[in-house]
Every structure is written in structure tokens, then in C-alpha cells.
Amino acid sequence: MIVARLGPAGPVPRVVRERRRPAGVVVSRRRLAILALALATPLCPTACHDQPGVQTAAPPDAAAPPRTLRIAMIAKSASNPSFLASRLGAENRARALTAKYGTPIQIVWMTPPQEDAAVQAQRIAQAVTDRLDAVLISCSDSTKLTPAIDAAVAHGVPVMTFDSDAPGSRRFAYAGVDDFKAGQAVMRELARVIPRRGKVAVLSGNPNAPNLRSRVEGIMNEAAHHPDLTMLGPFFHVETPQEATAAVMRAENAHPDIVGWAMVGGWPLYTQTLLHDLEERRATKLQVVPKIVSINALPPQLIYVDQGLAPVLLAQPTYLWGEVGVDTIVAKLLLRQTVPERIPMDLVRVTSDTLGSWARQLHAWGFPDAPEEYLQRP
Fold first, then answer.
1. What is the overall mean pLDDT for the chain?
2. DSSP three-state, residue 216
């Protein structure tokens, strides 16, 4: 049994071997050691909490701070205003959901400066190495990115796509428009505003982007219903405003009788270089001024609608790419909910009659450059 004798430093245990033990009672050596340690530990009154040098454990009900949910966002290009809009939507939604659920949600922007599928694949691998919780990506080339997506999922990092999908990969969800139908809509709108006969040029960016390929297919499918139109292209280019404008200029020089442009992305409309060229043509009245119908309608592009050069723009909800992406990832990882594999988004038809309402929508989404003139329109 254990007895204690008093010593200068307080109770000191010693084990006294008993010759007899009550029947049925077995005391292990380990239990004896635990009891001895308990007796050897001096009792500390409540006042010990205030003594310097005395460390005390946190109260049992003290909650650890919640772990941050980190989402890698990998768009195609950091120089494309559409993806800057999606970043804004993601970051705003992350702040809102952080306040709502009490769990910090962080967007880690890992988009390459220029479009490059190989760099995107490296960024996915980096997200896995950095132990981020999820990846939200718009794929520049689904063939190159599918192995990287599958590897991330195999390492426990779920991947969601937006805008441009990798349907053969292990990504758990995709949010965006139906690209084939979007292409059909572009051609259908263009056919309404150009002569029945003439040449129509198709502008596409990256030839390997699956979403752009589907849009071009949709344009050609709809063009088959207009046999008197001659289709040119598609004309590919690096997805920057400067390269896109140069591609349009080259095509115009080679085919000065183009009556319409079907653009699967509005890259050349982000600057006014093309605008000035078309206005000069209109002023001379000696050259054909082509009509433009394009995907996207961000603030810099709206002047083309106002000037009648682009009678119709079909706006993607680029801000919502980020917002819906964050909503979906949070629902899956934080709320443990089942999410749909495909989240369809609709195009918004923007014309001179709807410039005011669309500009106000852009302003509500946080675009600081929505033109004041259009904000005041009905």
C-alpha cells in the first residue's frame, strides 16, 4: 500500500509492501506508480494563476480558433478583365461567408500572368504542396490539365472548374454557360443585323481552350442555316486585347469586305484601338464597317454598343464565376452538402436599350469603371 510521510518539501510518498492483501484485490505496479505521482504533486491553490513563472492549462471549454479554408483560384490569365471580375466575385463571397459561418475563407490567387496551360498545371501541383483545401480553375487546355486535376484529387484536394471545363477529369463540379449554345446565339444575333449575303469572320482565342472550341462549333452550326453567308476563320490569337486587335486588323486587310464578326470572346473590345479604326471607316463611307456580336460585356466594352458597332453583346456573368465557385466549394467542404456536377449560367443580352440596367448591375458587382453616363440611363 501507499503511505505518505511529511518531509521538508511536503508529502513524500513511499511504497510499503504489505504482507497480506485483501482477497480479490489486485493492485498493479502501474497503478501504484500513478498513485505515487499524484501524491508527490503539490496542490496549487487558485492564487497560483497570478504567480509569475507558473504556467497553467487553458480552461477545458476554451475553443481553438477555426482553421482557415484556403481555395486556390487559377484562372486562364491575370491580364484578362473577365477573370479579374471572377476574382472580385470570389473574394467578396469569401468575406461574406467568413462572417456568416465564422470560419475564415481565403482566396489564394494563383493565376498565371499570361495564358499557359503548363503553368496552370504547375500551380495545381503547388496548391497540393501548399496543402490548400480546394482548387477553382478555368482550364486553358483540358488535355494538359486533366492529369494535374486527377493528381490533385488523388492527394485529397478537390477541384472545381468554371468558364472552361475539363469534363474528362475527376473535378467534382463545373459552373458556366453552355458554350455550344452560346456560339449559336452569337451567330443568330449577328445574322439579324448584317446583310443576308457577305463574309462573316469568326474570332477565337486559344485554339486549345475547350470552351472556345465549343463556341466556334456552335457558330458554325448556326451558320449552316444561313447559306448565303461565307464564313471565314476562325482566327486564333493570344488572349490579350492587343493580340486580338492585331488579328482582327490582319483579317480586315486580307478581306476588306467582311460584313460581320462573330467573336467567341470580346478581347479586342477591351481597348478603343479597334473602335477608332471602325469609326474612321464609317466616316469615309468608302469601306465596309462590319457589325460585331461578341461574348462578354464588361465596362470597357460597352462603348462599342453605344456607338452601334456592336449592336449586341452577350454577357457572361463573370463576377458570378467566382461567387458561385466559392459557394459550391464551401457547401461541399464546410457544410458537407451534396452539390450538383453542372451549374448552368445564362448569358445576358446587352443592347443600347439595356445599357443602363447592365451598367448598374456591373456597378453593384463592384466594378469601379462602370461609366457614369450609362449608370444614369433608364
1. 86
2. helix
pLDDT in tens, 175-231: 999 999 999 999 999 999 999 899 999 999 999 999 999 999 999 999 999 999 999
Cell representation of residue 220: 458554325
Query: What are the pLDDT digits (tens) for 50-86?
Result: 334 434 334 444 456 789 999 999 999 998 888 999 9
Contact in structure between 150 and 169 (CB atoms under 8 Å): yes
Q: Concatenated DSSP letters for 73-133?
A: EE-S-TT-HHHHHHHHHHHHHHHHHHHHHSS-EEEEE---SS--HHHHHHHHHHHHHTT-S
Q: Which residue has the cell 467566382?
A: 322
Instruction: Dig out the grid coordinates for 92 from the structure.
Output: 467578396
What is the pTM for the complete model shown? Answer: 0.76
| Bridge partners, residue 203, by sequence | 235, 263
Cα–Cα distance, 83 to 211 (Å, whole number): 15
Phi-psi region of 163 (alpha: psi -120 to 50; beta: other; left: phi over 0): left
Identity of the residue numbered 303: I
Q: Domain extents for the chain?
A: 69-176+318-345, 179-315
Whole-number Å distance between alpha carbons of 244 and 236? 8
Note the helical H segments in 168-272.
179-193, 210-223, 241-254
Instruction: Check if the beta carbon of residue 344 is closer than 8 Å to that of residue 177.
Output: yes
| DSSP assignment letter at 41 | S
User: How far is the CA of 11 from the CAs of 4, 5, 27, in angstroms?
Assistant: 6, 6, 22
DSSP 203: E
Q: Which CATH superfamily is domain 69-176+318-345 in?
A: Response regulator (3.40.50.2300)
Angle between the 142-154 and 117-129 helix axes, to the nearest 10 degrees? 10
**Contact call for residues 240 and 267 (beta carbons, < 8 A):** yes
Residue among 230, 190, 371, 193 at smallest CA distance from 297: 371
Q: Give the relative orientation of helices 81-101 and 318-333 as an angle to the nearest 10 degrees.
A: 40
CA-wise closest residue to 194 among 56, 309, 89: 309
- Looking at domain 179-315, what is its CATH homologous superfamily? Response regulator (3.40.50.2300)
Same fold? 69-176+318-345, 179-315: yes
